[in-house]
Specification:
Strand 10 (255-262), helix 8 and strand 11 form a beta-alpha-beta unit. Helix 10 runs antiparallel to helix 12 (395-409), helix 10 packs across helix 18 and helix 13 packs antiparallel against helix 14 (437-453). The protein is built from 18 helices and twelve strands. It has a six-stranded mixed β-sheet with strand order 1-2-4-3-5-6, sandwiched between helices. A six-stranded mixed β-sheet has the order 9-8-7-12-10-11. By secondary structure, the protein is an alpha/beta fold. The chain has helices spanning 11-21, 39-44, 85-95, 109-124, 155-167, 172-185, 233-248, 268-284, 315-322, 364-378, 380-390, 395-409, 418-432, 437-453, 458-473, 483-495, 498-511, 535-554, and strands at 26-28, 33-36, 49-56, 73-79, 101-106, 129-134, 186-192, 212-215, 226-229, 255-262, 288-295, 305-312. The protein starts with 10 loop residues before the first helix and ends in a 5-residue tail after the last helix.
Length: 559
């Protein structure tokens, strides 16, 4: 287990202390209770207090929703463990006043018992306390042979709606009614790609193979209702949303809101992919998506995966969701309907214009280009693996993407002469490859094209292209870059044959294994790169070998 903690037994209080120290709008009490800093003011003016909570490990829930427009207090138990009745009672006593207290509880046995008992005790002390239970888990049948549907990320929407109602000054009964209405409208279902590890346990709560996912799980790292094979994101999202739509009886024309929730370990990039398909799915089914939020709302530690929550809404509910909120976890307001369809972007006018002179498939240049592209596509994983050892691991992917783009853009190239074709290839590489390699390779090809237009022979043109890379990138021989292969190759080509250039490039590449990088991302690794050749230089060798192979097919003697 690798976690940035001190004593696993102290992780929850230390987490809450850090949260309170960096948030002036909240106050930390005993027993894991977080309250609004202005709770005394709210109590004196008779505002309904909202209290929620549960086990820790779901951050930013629940302390992250303490603030104006949402919760008045939150109670945190140990990781994935319900807080005690005494802890809940501490929160009720701290914020309870003439307006009364509403407890918003997720449907887990421990939470229901402890919050329920605390409510009973508080009532004997003269406090008016009501409680609602959120059970938005659509993976379980409502009347199934189990402990009932669990409370999941949809609970956060209940916090928001009820919090806005309380902030508007509604009495306890009215706030409770809106909270119940909200809870009954929400359906949530999740899917996990990995397990999570409770700090005190030291090992994952379940085991998933590399190609497995867990459907319909809760928020405590427990197994779900079904295990299946990993599928493309769009298929996963379609499955989740179909379940939610059927569960709530949502049909075309219904107005809904969507919550895309990170279970803890899902990159923001993947959340964007998920949100894209979710919005598209709803549009395809004629469902009116009024609002959507994407982020980490109620997590399960570092579990990779997501949950989707869907709720039917009307104008009143939307006004609650759009109401101002001051918390650390609820996203900044973006009132307005969700864009259901993105506008068509303008075309890329920088690609070379389609020429009336097509590229000759049988020309030596194009056969050589095809050989280079084929070699880069074959070597994608090889270069990726190599680059992961000393860089960011994107070289193989970038060069393969460029190779595909060159082959695709061929119909747009001007086939009048070799220089024209090369200019077109330079434009494709500049646009498609990106990163460091894109501009460097584009400069190489563009300079070669210019020299060929001037009538210079290939060895001179190639050497000029290598100079262009050095000028643009600022590197030199011995800096552990692609130039350690290119410069020796250019020198050998001017005085010998292509085979000599390949040999020189390979020798220069092998020498990079003993050089500490001073350029590129490898330069941050110091002597950890020693023993591994530079990936950019290795890519040069592969391309030169491809050129030699292509030429040997035509000129076996000259090669």
């Amino acid at each position: 287990m690798k976690k940035l903690v001190n004593d696993p037994a102290a992780v929850v209080p230390e987490m809450l202390q850090g949260f309170a120290l960096t948030n002036p709008d909240i106050t930390l009490l005993d027993h894991g209770v977080v309250v609004r800093a202005d709770h005394d003011v709210l109590r004196r003016r008779g505002q309904v207090a909202l209290v929620s909570g549960g086990g820790a490990g779901h951050e930013p829930a629940h302390a992250g929703y303490v603030g104006a427009g949402m919760l008045t207090a939150a109670v945190a138990g140990d990781v994935f463990t319900s807080p005690s009745a005494d802890a809940v009672l501490t929160a009720i006593r701290a914020v309870g006043g003439p307006g009364g207290v509403l407890l918003i509880v997720k449907n887990y046995t421990g939470d229901r018992l402890n919050f329920g008992l605390a409510a009973e005790i508080a009532r004997t002390e003269g406090l008016e306390v009501e409680m609602i239970v959120v059970a938005d888990d659509a993976a379980l049948a409502a009347d199934g042979d189990n402990a009932g549907r669990r409370g999941l990320a949809g609970t956060v929407l209940v916090h928001k709606i009820a919090g806005a109602a309380a902030e508007a000054g509604l009495p306890l009964a009215a706030v409770k009614a809106e909270a119940i209405k909200a809870a009954e409208s929400i359906a949530t279902m999740g899917v996990a790609l990995s397990a999570c590890t409770v700090p005190a346990a030291g090992k994952p709560g379940l085991e998933l193979a590399a190609n497995e996912i867990e459907w319909g799980l809760g928020i405590h790292g427990e197994p779900g209702v079904e295990r299946g094979e990993l599928r493309p994101a769009d298929e996963v999202i379609d499955t989740l949303l179909t379940r939610l739509v059927v569960d709530r009886g949502i049909t075309a024309g219904d107005r809904v809101v969507l919550l895309v929730n990170n279970l803890g370990g899902t990159p923001t990039m993947e959340l964007g992919v998920i949100a894209r398909r979710a919005v598209t799915y709803l549009a395809e089914h004629g469902i009116e998506l009024e609002r959507a939020w994407t982020g980490s709302f109620l997590t399960a530690l570092e579990m990779a995966g997501c949950s989707l929550s869907l709720a039917r809404v009307d104008d009143e509910v939307l006004s609650r969701l759009d109401a101002p909120t001051r918390t650390t976890a609820w996203p900044a307001a973006h009132v307005g309907r969700v864009v259901r369809e993105l506008p068509t972007p303008p075309g890329d006018h920088e690609i070379v214009a389609v020429s009336t002179v097509p590229v000759d498939d049988n020309s030596l240049l194009w056969r050589t280009v095809e050989a280079i592209c084929a070699r880069l596509l074959d070597a994608e994983q090889e270069l990726t693996d190599l680059d992961q050892q000393v860089g960011d691991g994107d070289l193989g992917l970038s060069l393969a993407r460029g190779a595909r783009a060159v082959l695709t853009d061929k119909p747009q190239y001007d086939g009048t002469d070799d220089a024209s074709v090369l200019r077109g290839i330079a434009g494709t590489v500049r646009r498609a490859v990106g990163g460091t390699s894109g501009p460097l390779y584009a400069a190489l090809v563009l300079r070669i094209s210019a020299k060929r237009s001037d009538g210079e022979p290939w060895p001179i043109a190639f050497a000029a292209g290598v100079d262009a890379i050095a000028e643009l990138g600022g590197a030199k021989l011995g800096d552990r870059t692609m130039l350690d292969a290119l410069i020796p190759a250019a020198a050998a080509l001017r005085s010998g044959q292509l085979a000599d250039a390949v040999t020189a490039a390979r020798a220069g590449t092998e020498q990079t294994a003993g050089i500490v990088a001073v350029r590129g991302r490898s330069s941050y690794l110091g002597d950890r790169v020693l023993g591994v050749v530079d990936p950019g230089a290795q890519a040069v060798v592969l391309q030169l070998e491809a050129i030699r192979t292509a030429l040997e097919a035509v000129y076996p003697v000259r090669s």
